[in-house]
Amino acid sequence: MKFYLDEDLSPKIAEILRKSGIGALSAHEAGRCEVSDRKQLEFAATEKRCLVTRNRDDFIRLTVQFFNDQRPHCGVLIIPHTIPGDQFSLIANLIKKFSSHHQKGLAPYSIAFLPIK
Predict the structure, then answer these.
(1) 87-101 pLDDT, tens per residue?
(2) CA distance 1 to 28
(3) pLDDT tops 80 at residue 117
(4) What does the pLDDT average to over 15-25?
(5) What are phi and psi of 58, to 5 degrees?
(6) What's the rounded Cα separation, in Å, for the pair 4 and 16?
Protein backbone atom coordinates (compact mmCIF):
# COMPACT_ATOMS: atom_id res chain seq x y z
CA MET A 1 0.00 0.00 0.00
CA LYS A 2 1.36 3.41 -0.97
CA PHE A 3 0.47 6.68 0.71
CA TYR A 4 0.31 10.33 -0.26
CA LEU A 5 0.36 12.65 2.76
CA ASP A 6 -1.67 15.83 2.50
CA GLU A 7 0.13 19.07 3.30
CA ASP A 8 -1.42 19.17 6.78
CA LEU A 9 0.98 16.36 7.75
CA SER A 10 4.72 16.78 8.19
CA PRO A 11 7.02 15.35 5.50
CA LYS A 12 8.96 13.82 8.40
CA ILE A 13 6.18 11.23 8.64
CA ALA A 14 6.78 10.20 5.02
CA GLU A 15 10.52 9.94 5.70
CA ILE A 16 9.93 7.67 8.70
CA LEU A 17 7.54 5.50 6.69
CA ARG A 18 10.01 5.09 3.83
CA LYS A 19 12.73 4.02 6.29
CA SER A 20 10.30 1.28 7.35
CA GLY A 21 9.81 0.17 3.75
CA ILE A 22 6.43 1.85 3.26
CA GLY A 23 5.85 3.78 0.03
CA ALA A 24 5.10 7.31 1.18
CA LEU A 25 5.26 10.72 -0.46
CA SER A 26 4.25 14.02 1.10
CA ALA A 27 2.68 16.99 -0.62
CA HIS A 28 5.68 18.98 0.61
CA GLU A 29 8.13 16.67 -1.16
CA ALA A 30 6.02 16.63 -4.32
CA GLY A 31 5.94 20.44 -4.41
CA ARG A 32 2.16 20.42 -4.09
CA CYS A 33 1.57 22.67 -1.08
CA GLU A 34 -1.25 25.18 -1.39
CA VAL A 35 -2.93 22.99 -4.00
CA SER A 36 -6.69 22.52 -3.66
CA ASP A 37 -7.97 19.44 -1.84
CA ARG A 38 -9.55 18.25 -5.09
CA LYS A 39 -6.18 18.46 -6.87
CA GLN A 40 -4.49 16.65 -3.98
CA LEU A 41 -6.98 13.78 -4.24
CA GLU A 42 -6.63 13.67 -8.04
CA PHE A 43 -2.84 13.51 -7.69
CA ALA A 44 -3.07 10.70 -5.13
CA ALA A 45 -5.33 8.71 -7.46
CA THR A 46 -3.02 9.28 -10.43
CA GLU A 47 -0.11 8.00 -8.33
CA LYS A 48 -2.22 5.03 -7.09
CA ARG A 49 -1.76 6.20 -3.49
CA CYS A 50 -4.11 6.38 -0.54
CA LEU A 51 -4.40 10.00 0.57
CA VAL A 52 -3.63 10.55 4.26
CA THR A 53 -4.97 13.70 5.92
CA ARG A 54 -6.29 15.29 9.08
CA ASN A 55 -8.83 17.22 6.98
CA ARG A 56 -11.78 14.89 7.53
CA ASP A 57 -14.77 16.91 6.38
CA ASP A 58 -13.41 18.13 3.04
CA PHE A 59 -12.12 14.73 1.98
CA ILE A 60 -15.31 12.92 2.93
CA ARG A 61 -17.25 15.40 0.79
CA LEU A 62 -14.75 15.02 -2.08
CA THR A 63 -14.88 11.23 -1.88
CA VAL A 64 -18.65 11.34 -2.39
CA GLN A 65 -18.16 13.70 -5.36
CA PHE A 66 -15.48 11.47 -6.88
CA PHE A 67 -17.78 8.45 -6.45
CA ASN A 68 -20.73 10.23 -8.07
CA ASP A 69 -18.52 11.42 -10.95
CA GLN A 70 -16.83 8.00 -11.24
CA ARG A 71 -13.41 9.64 -10.95
CA PRO A 72 -10.39 7.55 -9.94
CA HIS A 73 -9.92 7.26 -6.18
CA CYS A 74 -7.56 5.09 -4.09
CA GLY A 75 -9.02 5.68 -0.66
CA VAL A 76 -8.56 8.22 2.11
CA LEU A 77 -7.04 7.59 5.52
CA ILE A 78 -8.05 10.14 8.16
CA ILE A 79 -5.70 10.91 11.05
CA PRO A 80 -7.83 11.88 14.07
CA HIS A 81 -7.16 15.18 15.79
CA THR A 82 -6.78 13.31 19.07
CA ILE A 83 -3.28 12.40 17.84
CA PRO A 84 -1.06 15.49 18.14
CA GLY A 85 0.30 16.53 14.75
CA ASP A 86 3.84 16.81 16.06
CA GLN A 87 3.96 13.13 17.08
CA PHE A 88 5.65 12.12 13.81
CA SER A 89 6.92 8.71 14.95
CA LEU A 90 3.60 7.79 16.53
CA ILE A 91 1.65 8.73 13.41
CA ALA A 92 4.13 6.88 11.17
CA ASN A 93 3.96 3.77 13.35
CA LEU A 94 0.17 3.80 13.34
CA ILE A 95 0.13 4.19 9.54
CA LYS A 96 2.63 1.33 9.24
CA LYS A 97 0.41 -0.88 11.41
CA PHE A 98 -2.65 0.13 9.37
CA SER A 99 -0.77 -0.71 6.18
CA SER A 100 0.10 -4.18 7.44
CA HIS A 101 -3.62 -4.89 7.78
CA HIS A 102 -4.42 -3.46 4.32
CA GLN A 103 -1.58 -4.74 2.16
CA LYS A 104 -3.65 -4.59 -1.02
CA GLY A 105 -4.74 -1.04 -0.25
CA LEU A 106 -8.18 0.37 0.37
CA ALA A 107 -11.05 -0.21 -1.99
CA PRO A 108 -11.80 2.76 -4.25
CA TYR A 109 -13.85 5.46 -2.53
CA SER A 110 -13.10 4.01 0.91
CA ILE A 111 -12.64 6.27 3.88
CA ALA A 112 -10.81 4.82 6.86
CA PHE A 113 -9.99 6.36 10.21
CA LEU A 114 -6.57 5.58 11.62
CA PRO A 115 -7.02 3.43 14.73
CA ILE A 116 -5.31 4.99 17.74
CA LYS A 117 -4.16 1.65 19.18
Answers:
(1) 999 999 999 999 999
(2) 20
(3) no
(4) 97
(5) -65, -40
(6) 13
CA–CA separation, 65 vs 75, rounded Å?
Answer: 13
Annotation: CATH topology of 2-113: Rossmann fold (3.40.50)
| Euclidean distance between CA atoms 76 and 49, whole angstroms | 9
Range 21-24 contact pairs with CB under 8 angstroms and sequence separation of 24 or more: 22/95, 22/96, 22/99, 23/49, 24/95
In the chain, the amino acid numbered 115 is P
What is the chain's length? 117
Nearest CA to 4 among 36, 42, 61, 57?
Answer: 42
pLDDT digit string (tens) for 37-54? 999 999 999 999 999 999
Using DSSP, how many helices (H) and how many strands (E) does the chain show? 4, 5
